[in-house]
Amino acid sequence: MYEILEKKVMSETVKLMKIKAPLVAKKAQAGQFAILRIDKKGERIPLTIADFDRKKGTITIIFMEVGKTTKQLGKLNVGDSIMNFVGPLGVPSEIKKYGTVVMIGGGVGIAPLYPIVKALKEVGNHVISILGARNESLLMLEKEIKSFSDELFIATDDGSKGQKGFVSDILQGLIDEKREIHMVMAIGPVIMMKVVADLTRKYNIKTLVSLNPIMVDGTGMCGGCRVSVGGETKFACVHGPEFDGHLVDFKNLMLRNRRFIKEEEQACKLSGVM
Amino acid sequence: MAVRKTKHEMPEQPPKERIKNFNEVPFGYLPEIAIEEAKRCLQCKNRPCVEGCPVEIDIPEFIKEIAEGNFDKAVEVLKTKTSLPAVCGRVCPYESQCEGVCTLLKIGEPVAIGRLERFLADYERDKGMKIPKKARPTGKKVAIVGSGPAGLTCAGDLAKMGHKVTVFEALHAPGGVLMYGIPEFRLPKAIVNAEVDYIKQLGVDVKYDVVVGKTITVEELLEEYDAAFIGTGAGLPRWLRIPGENLDGVYSANEFLTRVNMMKAYQFPEYDTPVKIGKIVATFGAGNVAMDCARTSLRLGAEKSYIIYRRSDVEMPARDEEIEHAREEGVIFKLLTNPVEFKGDDKGLLKEVKCIKMELGELDDSGRRRPIPIPRSEETIKIDTALIAIGQSPNPLIPQTVKGLKIGKWGNIETDENGRTNIPGIFAGGDIATGAATVILAMGAGKRAARSIDSYLKSKK
């Protein structure tokens, strides 16, 4: 059992939890994820690691309540435990000095972006962060990301904070200003990552995206999380979760992410979490 | 008295009934029948059956005890060589092992050794398992990576020798392929749990949620343990590598079976993990895993369940019993048929598979006749779900993360016949060393590795 030590409500549908998982915390690196199962009848879901504390043995997860499991998880409180928490899984982010990096986080994707921003700043990159959300209340970790960024831009769909529009608009602005950019990383909704990758492809800027498709075991066994990257089938759980954004077949990814949408609705209704 | 030429039948659920449930298909022998069947054994002096058994069970001896009605004594004999008899008594390919060399084959059917093993295991489980005396603690510690048949066997044997054993399992449940792969109707999970409980009662500790290679490395384990055994199996699914394989509706056998067996998707929405199969399911491949997929599909409500296989019926690698059960249940076999493309609709949903007819040519490297496509023989079959069951490769996680470990050309860990790798203190066995094989071969490998780990620990001091 893995105890919930802290819980923070980030917005109506987004929660933060610190989970006691010393073995996972000991090994966790930026860019990796964990798989959890709440109880005996639960499903296994992957969640990207938003932060870790090796000394305290904790892993921070930040999740949006979108399905049965995340809604059920959101109802748990400090002192409650979840049955299984396994990790760290996936290949860690490559942390090196690129020069200038543009770090783009959209919605709940800002959470996994944070440890990578931190690590890339610590090795001496010039970090430009662009955070996007539907509105101000859904924007998270602004202060934390700011403290590890040289420049910070914000875009909201409704203009309630920062620039009205999309993260890609801000990126386009930077490119138009002829800013030298050595690497772009985008984590967020699939459509956002696709738009960013389509944009940077035109300018030949290296772009990494972090994918979070449907998984079961998370150890390379089932292939449920497979994505087509440059025409090759890769497993997000063991080959990823980060891939070259210019090579990912986003259309197929979006379709595969909708595989169980009806079943998800059914499960939510029946369990009364909706 | 003349010896009866045929095995005593084992009653089972009728096909029409059983495809509506996930309960076990055969019911097992009643004690009277078991005794009668045991009396068929000739008690041969040369014991061919024992040589045919990968874990060297003293078969004539336990059968003799059954024949005399000494079930407890029979269990004792059985369990000196196997810690997982209820599993072996269900999924072993007896026909090509112990029963395949039985002297009675000269006049008829062999002794039903598998059914008798199963009978004893079930008898013992119903009665409550007795824990054997352990050897004096040696003070040595062994880490076992993976709780499948190889790891559990190795763990059980080492514990009986007096070593302190810890098993590390990546998933949340024990058993490896016994849990995620083999369906409930062929191997009830309560039985796997009972066998694991027995091994735990021998003093073995099982830790879940530990992905060795990620959560902790083998090198780190060796700082705390005197030796390590790697039994991580063949978990990497193989693909057909044809267009459309990533459409919604195409599953690897592993994903499909893991969802249904381990995550209990057949009880969705009581359990949270879903699976959807539609009306027409095609399973590609003709091994035991393929039969499991095709039969599971029927139980999930498929109206048609195809086995599509590029060779002919004689080359099908599945056990005859599994093929027979599948046929009885109404699985449709489309043989000498090879898929070339999956096609979907504009939403990316699988709709059909294009196949081509095959004919058999010259012998290939596997000693089987090579299937060759017949030109212009394409046909399109409407399907809702495709299950790819054409085999698994060794799980690459450990081979990739242990520095200097010698790896074979299939990505397997290279070992000698006693499970020794090129690194002292690291042993391996089962599918991770041999590539995908059977439960019993993995158990045999676990057993031999336990012996060589024991002598390694004794020599190490």
Question: In summary, what is this structure?
Answer:
The complex is a heterodimer of chains A (274) and B (461). Chain A has 274 residues and is α/β, with parallel strands linked by helices.
Helical element count of chain B?
17
- Distance between the amino and carboxyl termini of chain A: 26 Å
Helices and strands of chain A, in N-to-C order? Answer: EEHEEEHEEEHEHEEHEHEEEEHH
* SS summary, helix count of chain A: 8
Q: Tell me about the largest β-sheet of chain B.
A: 5 strands, parallel
Query: Structural class of the secondary structure composition of chain B?
Result: alpha/beta
Rough outline of chain B: globular
- pLDDT under 50 segments of chain A (min length 5)? none
In helices, the fraction of residues of chain A equals: 25-40%
Widest sheet: strand ordering of chain A: 6-1-2-5-4-3-7
Distance between the termini of chain B: 58 Å
What would you call the shape of chain A? globular
User: What is the residue-averaged pLDDT of chain B?
Assistant: 94
Largest sheet: number of strands, sense, barrel closure of chain A: 7 strands, antiparallel
Instruction: State which percent range the strand residues of chain A make up.
Output: 25-35%
- Low-confidence regions of chain B: none
What assembly state would you assign to the polypeptide chains in this entry? Answer: heterodimer
Sheet with most strands: strand arrangement of chain B: 3-2-1-4-16
The percent range for helix content of chain B is 25-40%
**Quick one: how many beta strands of chain A?**
16
By secondary-structure content and strand pairing, the structural class of chain A works out as alpha/beta
